[in-house]
Specification:
The structure holds 2 protein chains of 2 kinds. By secondary structure, chain A is an alpha+beta fold. In chain A, 31% of the residues lie in helices and 14% in strands. Chain A has a 5-stranded mixed beta sheet with strand order 2-1-5-3-4. Chain B has 3 domains: 3-233 and 351-421, FAD/NAD(P)-binding domain (3-Layer(bba) Sandwich), CATH 3.50.50; 237-348, Succinate dehydrogenase/fumarate reductase flavoprotein, catalytic domain (Flavocytochrome C3, Chain A, domain 1, Alpha-Beta Complex); 428-561, Methane Monooxygenase Hydroxylase, Chain G, domain 1. The N and C termini of chain B lie far apart (61 Å). The chains are: A alpha+beta, B alpha+beta.
Chain lengths: 281, 583
C-alpha cells in the first residue's frame, strides 16, 4: 500500500473566530509518514497560519489528539499508510470547545480530573511526607491498577464518549478511570471519599457502556472497564460497607554478606557529612 | 499599559524539575508562599514525559551499593569535569526522592517481594536504575502533577510563552510572556524565580526531544547577563530511532540488548571490553560512529547510516513487561517487532550537560562568586556541574527531582526572609523594560510580514549542527559551522511572521524560538571551537586526548552583541583526582 502513495490529500476543518471551513492541502508522501508529519509539512511549507498542538512526537505527551477520518487519535502515532486511504480528514476533538483550527479548550477536562482527588490519600501523613522506606506492593496488587496509570490525558476518550456529549457535568471516561486508578491502588486510603464523588446523578451511573472510550484510547487503557469496576465497588460499599486495608512499609531486605564493590580510595581527605548542607532535612 | 501578574515564586517550566519545585514550596507551608506555575505547553505535556529508562538512587546499601560508589560512577562518567561537592550532595539526597514519589503514588516496578526493583544502566557499577517499565519520566510527571493538584495555593498558567527575563541590579524581578490563548503580552512579577525550561537539543535535526526543547531558558538568562556554562558538552544518546531520532531507552541495553554492526558482530567488545553495551553514552556513541565511518553500518532510505540493537534473545515476556513503549514505538515508526527482529539506531542529540551557570545550590550566578539574588535554575536547564562532560543515564531525572526539591526549598525560605525585610517591588523600571520587550515581540517579530522563511533558516541550522557538531568534531568543520551560524543570525534579523492572528499563533512563537535556538547554537559552537581537547561528549579528531593541564575547567559564555565572550572557572575536586577512564 505505502509504496504506491505519492501524495496525500489532507482536508482540515479549520475555525477562526467562530467561522469554520474545510481547507485542503496536497502533501508529498514518504514512507513512515505520520499525520503529524503531514501537519508539520503544511504549517512549515504551505500555510503558516494553521494552528495545532504537538510536542513529544512519540505518543506520550498527549498534545496532538485530533479526529482522524472520524476517529479520535494521536496525530504523531498515526501512520498515514495504515489508514487505508490517501485522503486524510482532520477535525478538532469532539466534545471540546474549539478555540482555533485543531486547538481545543482543555480547561474543563483538566478540572474534572482534579475533582477525582487523583493522588494517594493516607492517614500516616508524617510517613507520607518523610518516608522511611517504601509501601509494599505485590505483583498481583500492581496488576490490578497498573493499566489505568498509562493515561496520558490526551482527551481522545472524552471526544468519543456519547455520554459526555449529552451531559457536560459527567466527569467523563478520563477522570473516572483515574478515580478508579487511585481507588484500586493498594497504598491508597481515600477510596471512600472518591466513591462519594462519583456516586451522583451525573456520575458513574450515567455511563451506558458504549465502550467507545476504550476503543479509541491510544495507550491501551480501558476506561470503560474502570467505570464498571467503580460501579461494582460502589455496590460492594453500599451493601457490605467494604473495608480495605492499605499496604504498609516494607522492612529492608535481609542483610547477607554484601558483595564488595568499592570505588577507588579518596585522594583527598574530607567529611562526606559536611560537603554541602543546603536545605536537606 | 501591560498586564502584570504577581506571585511570590514563579516557576517557569513544568517538567519534573518545575513540578517538584512547586510541590516543595507547597509542602513546606501551604498558604505561606503562593506560586505561579508557568509553561509554554499544558502542564502534563512537558518533555520529561519522554524519559524512559530510570532514575538513579542508592536504595539497597544492604546489598552492596553505596553513596561513594554512586558518586564515583558519576565523577568517572563525567570525565572528571563534575564538581564533586555537588555529586556527593546529590547521591545522598536521591533515596529520599524515590521514596517520596513512591508514597505519592508512583507505580515503580517491583521485585516479587513487593520492594522497589532496580536495573543495570550504562556507567553504573551497581544496579541502581529505579524504573517504572520504560516510562519512568512519564510516571514521574503524572505522579508530580497529580500530587500538585492536592494543593490550592498555586495558579497554573498553561500555554504562556516566556520571552525574556527581568534582572535588575543583580536581582530577579520576573519575566515577560505571551498568553498564547489570547496573544496578549503579560509581565509575571515575583520575589523569586525558578527556571526549569529544559534542554536545547532541538538545535539538531536528528534528536530525541520534543519540538519545544529550544533552549529558551538558557538563551533568556544569557541575554540577561547570566553566563551559559559548559555548553560544548551535548550528549548524543547512542540509540536514536531511524529516521526521526526519537529515543530507544538505554534500559534496552540495561535489560541485556546487544549492539551489532552489519556483519552481526557485537562491536562493543573492541571499545569497552568489560562494560560492553553498558559503557557510558559518550563511549558507546563514538564506538557506533567508528563502526559506521569504517563501513560497517547500513544505509537507510533516508540517507542516514545505522547499526542494529538486538533484543530478540530477551524473549517476548520480558520485552512486554519491561520495554512495552519501545516495542510500540519501533513497531509504529520502523514496522519492526523487536521480539523477532533488531531495531535500527544511530546516535541522536539528547541532553544538554551545560546550561545556566549556577552554584552548587542551583542558584544562578554571574561569575565565580556573585549570585543572582532570587533566581534558581533546576533540571536540565541548570548547570551546577553534576554531569560534567558526560551524564550517566538515569542521573537526569534524578537531578530534576533533586534540584527541584532543593531550589523549591530555598525559594520558599528566601520569600519568607524577604517579606520580613518588607521590600516592595519597584515597578517603574519593570514597566520600561516590559514596554521595550513588547515592542520587540509585537512590532519587530510579529510586525514583519515579509522576508526570510523562518522554517528554512531553522532547517539549515539543524542540518548544519547534525554535520559539524556531532559525535566527532574537528576545528576546521567547527569554524565553518560557526560561520554558518553568523550568517543565519544575520538572516534571522529579516525573518518573516506570516500568521497575523493573536490566538494560538504558533508561527509567531516559532520565530521567537528560532532566535533562542540560534543563540544557544552559537554558544555551543563558540565554546566547542575554543576547547582544544577531547573530554566526555566533546570529542575532537584534531585533539583526541584529554588535557587536564590546560582544560580541566568550566567554560562560561557571556553575551555580547558580537557573540559569546568566553571565560573559565576551576572544577571543584574534593575526592578524586582525574585518572584514565576505562570501561
Amino acid at each position: 500500500m505505502s509504496k504506491e502513495i505519492k501524495e496525500v490529500l489532507v482536508r482540515i476543518l479549520r475555525t477562526d473566530n467562530g467561522r469554520s471551513w474545510w481547507a485542503e492541502y496536497k502533501v508529498p508522501f514518504f514512507e513512515g509518514m505520520t499525520v503529524l508529519d503531514a501537519l508539520n509539512y503544511i504549517r512549515e511549507r504551505l500555510d503558516n497560519t494553521l494552528a495545532f498542538r504537538s510536542h513529544c512526537r512519540m505518543g506520550v505527551c498527549g498534545s496532538c489528539a485530533v479526529v482522524v477520518n472520524g476517529k479520535p487519535r494521536l496525530a504523531c502515532n498515526t501512520q498515514i499508510a495504515r489508514l487505508g486511504t490517501d485522503v486524510v480528514e482532520l477535525k478538532p476533538l469532539y466534545n471540546f470547545p474549539v478555540i482555533r483550527d485543531l486547538v481545543v479548550d482543555l480547561v474543563d477536562f483538566f478540572n474534572k480530573h482534579r475533582r477525582m482527588k487523583p493522588y494517594l490519600i493516607r492517614r500516616d501523613v508524617k510517613e507520607r511526607e518523610e518516608p522511611t522506606r517504601e509501601y509494599r506492593v505485590t505483583p498481583e496488587e500492581f496488576e490490578r491498577y497498573t493499566q489505568f496509570t498509562y493515561c496520558i490525558m490526551c482527551g481522545a476518550c472524552v471526544a468519543a464518549c456519547p455520554t459526555v456529549s449529552a451531559d457536560n457535568l459527567y466527569p467523563g471516561p478520563q477522570a473516572l478511570a483515574q478515580a478508579y486508578r487511585y481507588l484500586a491502588d493498594p497504598r491508597d486510603e481515600g477510596w471512600e471519599e472518591r466513591l462519594r464523588i462519583v456516586d451522583d446523578q451525573h456520575g458513574v451511573w450515567r455511563c451506558h457502556f458504549a465502550g467507545a472510550c476504550s476503543y479509541v484510547c491510544p495507550k491501551g487503557v480501558d476506561p470503560a472497564l474502570a467505570i464498571q469496576l467503580l460501579k461494582k465497588e460502589l455496590f460492594k460499599y453500599k451493601l457490605f460497607k467494604r473495608r480495605k486495608k492499605a499496604s504498609e512499609i516494607v522492612p529492608p531486605p535481609e542483610v547477607k554478606a554484601p558483595p564488595k564493590k568499592q570505588p577507588p580510595p579518596f585522594d583527598y581527605e574530607f567529611n562526606i557529612e559536611e560537603v554541602i548542607k543546603y536545605e536537606r532535612e | 499599559m501591560v498586564e502584570i501578574i504577581d506571585h511570590d515564586v514563579l516557576v517557569l517550566g513544568t517538567g519534573i524539575a518545575g513540578l517538584r519545585a512547586a510541590i516543595e514550596i507547597m509542602r513546606r507551608g501551604e498558604g505561606k508562599v503562593n506560586v505561579g506555575v508557568v509553561s509554554k505547553v499544558a502542564i502534563m505535556r512537558s518533555h520529561s514525559v519522554g524519559a524512559e529508562g530510570g532514575t538513579a538512587a542508592v536504595l539497597y546499601p544492604e546489598e552492596g551499593d553505596s553513596f561513594e560508589l554512586h558518586a564515583w560512577d558519576t565523577v568517572k562518567g563525567s570525565d572528571f569535569l563534575a564538581d564533586q561537592d555537588v555529586v556527593f550532595d546529590f547521591v545522598r539526597a536521591m533515596p529520599r526522592e524515590i521514596r517520596l514519589l513512591e508514597h505519592w503514588g508512583l507505580p515503580w516496578s517491583r521485585r516479587p517481594d513487593g520492594r522497589i526493583a532496580q536495573r543495570p544502566f550504562g556507567g553504573h557499577s551497581f544496579n541502581r536504575a529505579t524504573f517504572a517499565a520504560d516510562k519512568t519520566g512519564f510516571f514521574e510527571m503524572r505522579t508530580l502533577y497529580d500530587k500538585l493538584l492536592e494543593y490550592d495555593n498555586w495558579e497554573r498558567y498553561d500555554e504562556y510563552f516566556a520571552t525574556s527575563l527581568i534582572i535588575e541590579d543583580g536581582e530577579f524581578k520576573g519575566f515577560t510572556a505571551i498568553n498564547q490563548r489570547t496573544g496578549n503580552f503579560v509581565v509575571f512579577r515575583g520575589l523569586a524565580g525558578i527556571i526549569a525550561t529544559g534542554g536545547t537539543s532541538q538545535m539538531y535535526k536528528f534528536g530525541t526531544t520534543a519540538v519545544g526543547v529550544t533552549g529558551d531558558g538558557v538563551a533568556m538568562a544569557y541575554r540577561a547577563g547570566i553566563p551559559a556554562k559548559d555548553m560544548e558538552f551535548l550528549q548524543f544518546h547512542p540509540t536514536g530511532l531511524i529516521p526521526s531520532g526519537i529515543l530507544l531507552t538505554e534500559g534496552a541495553r540495561g535489560e541485556g540488548g546487544h549492539l551489532k554492526n552489519k556483519n552481526g558482530e557485537r562491536f562493543m567488545k573492541k571499545y569497552a571490553p568489560e562494560k560492553m553495551e553498558l559503557a557510558p553514552r559518550d563511549i558507546v556513541s563514538r564506538a557506533m560512529m567508528r563502526e559506521i565511518l569504517e563501513g560497517r553500518g547500513v544505509k537507510h532510505w533516508s540517507g542516514l547510516e545505522y547499526v542494529y540493537i538486538d533484543l530478540t534473545h530477551l524473549g517476548e515476556e520480558r520485552i512486554k513487561e519491561r520495554l512495552p513503549l519501545i516495542r510500540e514505538l519501533v513497531l509504529k515508526f520502523q514496522g519492526i517487532d523487536i521480539i523477532s527482529e533488531p531495531a535500527l539506531v544511530r546516535p541522536t542529540a539528547h541532553y544538554t550537560m551545560g546550561g545556566i551557570h549556577t552554584g552548587p545550590n542551583y542558584q544562578a550566578m554571574f561569575d565565580d562568586k556573585t549570585y543572582v539574588r532570587g533566581l534558581w535554575a533546576a533540571g536540565e536547564v541548570a548547570c551546577a556541574s553534576l554531569h560534567g562532560a558526560n551524564r550517566l543515564g538515569t542521573n537526569s531525572t534524578a537531578e530534576c527531582l533533586y534540584s527541584g526539591a532543593l531550589t523549591g526549598a530555598q525559594a520558599f525560605k528566601y520569600v519568607l526572609s524577604k517579606r520580613e525585610k518588607g521590600t516592595n517591588p519597584s515597578s517603574t523600571s519593570i514597566t520600561t523594560f516590559a514596554e521595550k520587550e513588547q515592542k520587540r515581540i509585537f512590532e519587530e517579530v510579529l510586525g514583519r510580514e515579509r522576508g526570510e522563511d523562518p522554517y528554512e533558516v531553522k532547517n539549515e541550522l539543524r542540518e548544519m549542527m547534525d554535520k559539524k557538531f556531532y559525535v566527532f568534531r574537528t576545528g576546521e568543520e567547527m569554524a565553518e559551522g560557526l560561520k554558518k551560524i553568523k550568517e543565519l543570525k544575520e538572516r534571522y534579523r529579516k525573518v518573516r511572521t506570516s500568521d497575523r492572528h493573536k490566538e494560538f499563533n504558533y508561527n509567531w512563537l516559532h520565530v521567537i524560538e528560532l532566535g533562542f535556538l540560534l543563540d544557544v547554537a552559537e554558544i555551543l559552537a563558540t565554546s566547542a571551537y575554543a576547547r582544544k581537547e577531547s573530554r566526555g561528549a566533546h570529542y575532537r579528531l584534531d585533539y583526541p586526548k584529554r588535557d587536564d593541564k590546560n582544560w580541566l575547567k568550566h567554560t562560561l559564555a557571556y553575551y555580547t552583541p558580537e557573540g559569546p565572550r568566553l571565560d573559565y572557572i576551576p572544577v571543584r575536586i574534593i575526592a578524586w583526582k582525574p585518572r584514565e577512564r576505562k570501561y
